[in-house]
Design goal:
6-stranded antiparallel sheet, 355 residues, 11-stranded mixed sheet, alpha+beta, YerB-like fold, globular
């Protein structure tokens, strides 16, 4: 009995000692958890924003790639009668509009911008349709003179007038032709007269594709070799497709049209615009009525490009608005890059025959 008591006492003593050791031990150190680290994106100094797509500059009236000069358009009224041919400068015009005036004769509104001819002419007087053609370009117009009422129309259109009758520099009479077919001019001197309100290049007039194969007539048109116009009893120009030069070659009837320097007159695009051709309140010699064209509105037309033709609808919302062309399905019609001749066909009396 005495032996059992001693063992029990020893057991109780060890138990108490363990309890005291446990109670006197310090708390264990906490274990550190994982450190949270935020890592930003790696930026390379060689990488930046995506470059803007390169857009090739183009001359606004022709759509030809280049570095357009910061000058306004220059329109010149040029006569088109047998006494005036061959004319000077037409082969370098970006656009030429052919109009019928009194006595059924034709006159050109030749517009220059991308090229600078040394001389232009014969220069003649303004007519009521000129502001309708030129107001959207807000450029210069060189002419020999005009009736007071018609001059007021031109001035109100925002075009800067350069008139021989008003003594504008750069115009002169030649001795090799009889008056009134002998007024000529120097375009560089005309451009030098541009005032502060007429410095900007013209806006695009017709829509022009980036390449010839994107022209609407090329994509959707039907093949053609000749364009025979009847504009009046005194004017029947024709155009023949020339595959070698990829242009339409102009003739006056059956006579090839050439510039005074010998170059054949040609066009990448020929645009036919049919519009009413009413008389105005203005009169010429022998009380002949001076006509105009109804170009605000819409009408029928034809575009010839690349040896093909396509019918179009033309639309012009106001005198200041550029004319736009639309295909049969209502989508915009595009020309090919290059020069353009516009034939204004009098509705009811004029015609175009495609061969």
């Amino acid at each position: 009995m005495r032996a059992r008591t001693r063992v029990g006492s020893i057991g109780l003593g060890l138990g108490a000692l363990l309890v005291l050791v446990a109670c006197g031990s310090p708390d264990p150190e906490p274990t550190a958890g994982p450190t949270s680290v935020t890592v930003g994106p790696t930026l390379s100094s060689e990488k930046g924003a995506a470059p803007a797509p390169a857009v090739t500059p183009r001359w606004p009236l022709t759509g030809i790639a280049g570095d357009p000069a910061a000058r306004p358009s220059l329109a010149v009224k040029i006569e088109n009668t047998s006494a005036a041919r061959p004319q000077s400068g037409l082969e370098q015009a970006d656009m030429v509009w052919e109009t019928i005036v009194e006595f059924d004769v034709a006159r050109f509104v030749a517009v220059f911008h991308s090229q600078v001819p040394a001389e232009v002419g014969p220069i003649r007087s303004v007519r009521p349709m000129d502001p309708l053609i030129l107001a959207p370009m807000h450029g210069l117009l060189a002419f020999s003179g005009g009736q007071p009422g018609i001059l007021e129309l031109v001035a109100a259109s925002g075009v800067q007038m350069i008139s021989h009758d008003a003594g504008a520099p750069g115009m002169y009479r030649t001795s090799d032709r009889a008056a009134p077919h002998n007024v000529y001019g120097t375009p560089t001197k005309f451009w030098a007269q541009a005032d502060a309100d007429h410095q900007a290049p013209p806006a695009e007039q017709f829509l022009i594709g980036r390449s010839a194969d994107r022209a609407t007539a090329v994509l959707r048109g039907t093949p053609a070799t000749t364009l025979s116009f009847h504009l009046s009893t005194a004017s029947s120009p024709t155009w023949a497709w020339n595959a070698a030069s990829n242009t339409w070659l102009r003739s006056e009837g059956a006579t090839p049209s050439v510039a005074r320097g010998g170059a054949r007159l040609s066009a990448v695009n020929v645009v036919s615009i049919t519009a009413a051709h009413p008389p105005t309140k203005y009169h010429a010699q022998n009380h002949a009525s001076v006509p105009t064209y109804s170009l605000v509105g819409s009408g029928e037309g034809v575009v010839a490009t690349g040896g093909k033709v396509v019918p179009v609808t033309w639309k012009k919302d106001s005198q200041d608005a550029s004319m736009r062309l639309f295909a049969a399905d209502g989508t915009p019609a595009y020309l090919a890059p290059g020069n353009t001749w516009v034939e204004l066909v009098p509705k009811g009396s004029g015609s175009l025959t495609v061969g």
